[in-house]
Amino acid sequence: MVLTFPAEAIDEPITYTLIKEYDVMINILNADITHGREGNLLIEMSGEETNVREALVYLDNKQIQISPVIKTILFRESRCIHCGACASVCFSGALDMDTATRELKFSPERCIACELCIKACPLQLFELNFGVN
Amino acid sequence: MAIQKSYQEINEKIKRGDAVVLTAEEVSEMGRSRSAREIAEKVDVVTTGTFSPMCSSGVFINVGHSDPPIRMEKATLNGVPVFTGLAAVDLYIGATEAHPENPAYGGAHVIEELLEGKDVELIAHAKGTDCYPLKDIRTTINRENINDMIMFNPRNAYQNYPAAVNSSRQIKYTYMGSLLPRMGNANYSTSGELSPLLNDPQLRTIGVGTRIFLGGTTGYVSWFGTQFKTDTETNAHGVPVSNAAALAVIGDAKAMRPDFIKAAYFEKYGVSIFIGIGIPIPLLDEEMAARVMIRNDQITTRILDYGDPGKPELGRVTYAELQSGEITLNHKKIRTASLSSLHRARIIADLLKKELTEGRFLLAEPVEPFPHRKDLNPLIIR
After folding, report:
1. Does one domain contain both A34 and A83?
2. One domain, residues A77 and A124
3. pLDDT band at residue A132, thresholds of 50, 70 and 90?
């Protein structure tokens, strides 16, 4: 999720409070926070269900906007050489080799962003992208 | 009467625009309904193609002499070390040499950028001599301002290669790509019935001096490839069931096209390079026709387990099965994928067919055949 901090909440140790008071695990993936301005923090939060629920109430009380995030895979398709190395690690079927034309087809709507293709592509044509829903 | 055609006769037909040329896939299909004799009568040349990672590759360059001159002893291109042990300004860019701080960038990427016409930073150091006084140089080079770019690859176009699976519990990152645990996938790297050396398994028409398609231009077979061996087991159709022959090839990299030379990085393995090679096979007689008719279901390869240090063989499989997208091993269905681009291999075979049909590419008879017997020595640690 992305937490959007209003300018006045920047001074508060929000992450510290979440961990100490609500006993949730926080994995920070990206942070863009500047003193005196609105900021964004991209995190993964996990823990006991009641703790997570109370943590979300705390964030709401602090006027922090919570936006769920969608991980998507970016594919620089124009540089693809159609080898197919990504296709055998793609279990959702988003990357599929046409057995007749031997061309790789990418169906983004089937992608579950498992990220295995990122390391499988010898030309490094896949990237992870975080988009706010 | 037996059919016999000479290189000269076929070349005369090519020059007149009368040669009948098919790709290896087309002739395999034709072989379902025609005999070898009929094909030998009808067809003159069959074109093959492969576009695969071929690690044993690189480019010699001569960057020209500076004023004052330098005898380069240590040099990097875009930070990638290059070999300088050749006179003053001859360098060899090894495709798999990696940038010391960025393992995903290496010699192959430098070669690709040179082919694309980009500027590449050259930094070199020397001790300085009376005739080469300069000790340090930092400048940029590109395809236009250097004298020579000669691709010389000691081992390319392997004749067959085993498919890879991983029986262990962890993902394995190998030169055969990402191998998922518990045999989650199987990767292979040959263009099957379109592959050059599988269409002439005894190398009757491929030897020193054979003219080939290399990286988008004309190249030549310069020698047999390193690790060339002749003792690999063959199947009932006369093709080796694992890696056997290989080629050393040479060509003018200044004339090559980045579409057919592509830098690659295999996660936690390192840098490699895709090389596009196409070889024309003349149908000199009925026996050659029978060779090029071979189909994917007649070409076998081994399945090796990269999850076990000894890489034991787990079974055999045909390219028809591998190319179908799924194989069955020990009653388990396993998804397959290729590291070799069959799509681009077909483009190469089609391009070569067009060149031959339009009389722009002539066959070169080998000036020296390859060894009939050669085995491989392991490195003994003593």
Report:
1. no
2. yes
3. low
Which residues from B are below 8 Å from A77, CB to CB? none
Enter the tokens of residue B56. 């044993």
pLDDT of residue A12: 78
CA distance B125 to B114: 21
CB B165 within 8 A of CB B306: yes
Is B55 a known active-site residue?
A: no
Distance CA B167, CA B170 (A): 9
Average pLDDT over residues B276-282: 98
Identify whether the C-beta of residue B162 lies closer than 8 Å to the C-beta of residue B174. Answer: no
Q: Has residue B67 got a pLDDT over 80?
A: yes
B378 preceded by a cis bond (ω within 30 of 0): no
Sign of CA dihedral B228, B232, B234, B240: negative
CB contact (8 A) between residue A97 and residue B344: no
For residue B231, is pLDDT > 80? yes
Kindly report the CATH number assigned to the domain that includes residue A96: 3.30.70.20
**Tally of domains within chain A:** 2
Which residue range forms the structural domain that includes residue A117? 72-132
Q: Which of A88, A96, A104 to mutate to test the interface with B (most CBs of B within 10 A)?
A: A88
- Tell me the C-alpha distance between A39 and A3, whole Å: 8
Cα-Cα end-to-end distance for chain B: 59
A85/A37 same-domain check:
no
Instruction: Sheet containing B120-125: give its strands across.
Output: B80-82, B74-77, B120-125, B136-141
- Comparing alpha-carbon positions, the chain B residue that sits nearest to A79 is B259
The whole-angstrom distance between A91's CA and the closest CA on chain B is 9
**Out of A30-44, B15-29, B140-154, which region has the weakest mean confidence (pLDDT)?**
A30-44
What pLDDT, on a 0 to 100 scale, did the predictor assign at position A34?
A: 76
Which domain CATH number covers A54? 3.30.70.260
| Average of per-residue pLDDT across A83-101 | 91
Least-confidence region, from A28-32, B5-9, B41-45:
A28-32
Q: Which of A85, A103, A124 minimises the CB distance to B337?
A: A85
The answer on A91 and A51 residing in a single domain is no
* Stretch among A8-22, B121-135, B205-219, B290-304 having the lowest mean pLDDT: A8-22
B161 touches chain A (CB under 8 A): no
